[in-house]
Amino acid sequence: MVDRSGQPVSGAVVELKFYHRARAAEAETVLLRELLPGEYVTSFRAQQPGNWNFEVTASRGAAKYLAVLKIEVPAARSNPSRPAQSDIPR
Q1: Residue 16 burial by CB count (10 A; 0-12/13-18/19+): exposed, middle or buried?
Q2: 3-class DSSP string for the chain
Q3: Which of 10, 50, 59, 63 could form a disulfide with 37 if both were Cys (CB 3.0 to 4.6 A apart)?
Q4: pLDDT tens digits, residue range 23-72?
Q5: Tens digits of per-residue pLDDT, 3-32?
């Protein structure tokens, strides 16, 4: 995250709220940690494919920022190194 002059924004409180659009009532919020100046990270595992909303809120002092991202999470691909059950000879 950078400010208007391109400098890293360090020391902000950054939260991520995420939810599947079909299940907005099940939204989760996590606090991101600052890995490097201006670089905030977290991890999560999408429990299902589909359309997800990600709302990033950052605040430092009186300054606040909100970004909303809408991302389609694809279905998990099967493991190509492992045959599908129907491919196993009997």
Answers
A1: buried
A2: CECCCCCECCCCEEEEEEEEHHHHHHCEEEECEEEECCEEECCCCCCCCEEEEEEEEEEECCEEEEEEEEEEECCCCCCCCCCCHHHCCC
A3: 10
A4: 999 999 999 999 999 999 998 877 789 999 999 999 999 999 999 999 99
A5: 889 999 999 999 999 999 999 999 999 999
